[in-house]
Known about the structure:
The chain has helices at 10-25, 37-46, 80-94, 110-136, 176-190, 193-196, 216-227, 246-260, 272-275, 288-301, 324-327, 343-353, 365-370, 377-393, 401-413, 424-443, 477-487, 489-498, 506-521, 551-578, 580-593, 598-605; strands at residues 33-34, 49-55, 59-64, 73-76, 102-105, 156-158, 205-209, 231-235, 264-269, 310-316, 334-337, 450-454, 464-467, 595-597, 617-620. The protein is an alpha/beta fold. The strands form three sheets. Strands 6-8-9-10-7-11 form a six-stranded mixed sheet. A five-stranded mixed sheet has the order 1-4-3-2-5, covered by helices on one side. A four-stranded antiparallel sheet has the order 14-12-13-15, sandwiched between helices. A hairpin with a 3-residue loop joins strand 2 and strand 3. The protein starts with 9 loop residues before the first helix and ends with a strand. Residues 139-148, 282-286 and 613-618 have low confidence and may be disordered.
Amino acid sequence: MKKKKFNFYWIYVILTVVLFALYFTGKDETKQEDIEMGQLIELLQKGEVSKIELINKETAEVYLADNSRTPRYTYRIGSLERFEETVEKVQEESGIEKPIYITNVERKSWGLDLLFTWILPLVFVLALWFLFMRGMGRGSMGGGGQIFNIGKSKAQLFDKDNVPVNVTFKDVAGLEEAKVEIMEIVDFLKNPDKYTKLGGKIPKGVLLVGPPGTGKTLLAKSVAGEANVPFFSISGSDFVEMFVGVGASRVRDLFNNAKQKSPCIIFIDEIDAIGRARGKNPINGGNDERESTLNQLLTEMDGFGTNTGVIVLAATNRADILDKALMRAGRFDRQIYVELPDIVGRREIFEVHMRGLKLAPDVDREFLAKQTPGFSGADIANVCNEAALMAARKGKEAIDKQDFLDAVDRIIGGLEKKNKIITADEKKVIAFHEAGHATTSWLLQYAHPLVKVTIVPRGKALGAAWYLPEERQITTKEQLYHEMIATMGGRAAEQVMFGQISTGALSDLEKVTKQAFAMVTYYGLDEEIGNLSFYDSTGQQEYSLTKPYSEKTAETIDQQVSKLVEKAYQEAVSILSSHKEGLTMLANKLIEKEVIFGDDLEVIFGKRPWDTDTKEENHEG
């Protein structure tokens, strides 16, 4: 039988009873009658008063001759001097032979003194202490979060007796390569003899690296669900505290708990919160508390002590800023790159997130995978949820294909703003701007062909276009250049049709400038700069106050970037000038319908001879 836990609130009940007892025991229980001055004078004149005691100079207790042991009356004194003068004067006028003299008595109530001098102040201090401890311990582990546990680890423990994890490898899709390496770790924990008999040693650490939303934390949850060993989960920021030494203490406590439950896994999410490279901030130096926490982590992972059977699993988006000592073999022996899923991975992710959805027969996972290039697992989960919400909003019985397409459009471009006030002239400019993008992309071999374009405002954009980019691992200079021309097609269309340009190309200019800069400084695709790259994969350059190139080279870079962008713009102007009639037809159709598709372009410009089975992305502006 489980022993009942003592309820702390019984202490409050006991304290309340004690306080009431002290209060009432401190009172004098002798019943006395209050009298007025006139009654007192009458008693004195008759000679019935045996003595008068002045208690604490506040009340006068009057004793009568027939019972001199206990006071019979009580008189509340206003003015002490006047009272004494009145008693003395009455006795003189009455001719009493043995006058009664007032006796001063200091009387204290031990119960009330104890209550107000000791009990209440002590209760007040304890209450403040309790509230302070409760506030500091909110969200911390064990012991009610008392101050004495501030150095304790905040890691949440998952095991068979505490918060079981229901996520398994079946719930993780699109990460087949990563799962293979992770499953080997799980297999080692389940069957260690299989590896140790050959002399193998378990890896001490595995680092999951990848963009946000790719499933790093989900992969860690699946490990917890599959391994059947204790699993400690904690965020890197949970080690950081305003008190010096707390972070290191929490690291020690975490590994001590892990050693006691070995074999087990420690998962540290967002490890860059404490694992950032030491001494890289040239302005105010390193953060001593964070660095001491990192030093303790380094020692625990691979120091003089042994952590047999304890595997550290960590996740980060920024492996380039982590300390080199943390990344070396012996600490994080393996780095698993969790990349954005390809078309096959996206289809598998759609299958996972569609399990609980009520789908219409026209929903094709393969088609949806093609429409979502560059989407992470979290993005796809969001698409499925948005599609369900849209179908429910429209009162549908099942989620159909159009709901998923609308969800993709909303996530990429934002919610449609059909009620946004746009003048006829502005609408015409927007239509020609978007038609310029569509025309240039359709007529260039390596530009992404258009699928759909709209002039209905979405989010901050006044118009948006969706394209079918080719998923490729490497990109040539010509491919990048054609993409730049298509991006400048919007502003070029304004110049060709109206002879003036507007501010509507802001996002286009930002995109094309960054792309040109990358071509010149990172990819070595400029003849003037040559085969040089100033890209820093270590991330240390962001702490540097100087550029990795001279001022003269900086001027050359500026010139070449400007020249490249201007060249792309002029070529876009040339293409649209020679296809002005088709551009006008396309823009007019866009004004009429507000949304047009690739079929409309095919009618105007003919079929693209370079078309392949590619996928969809969007373009705004």
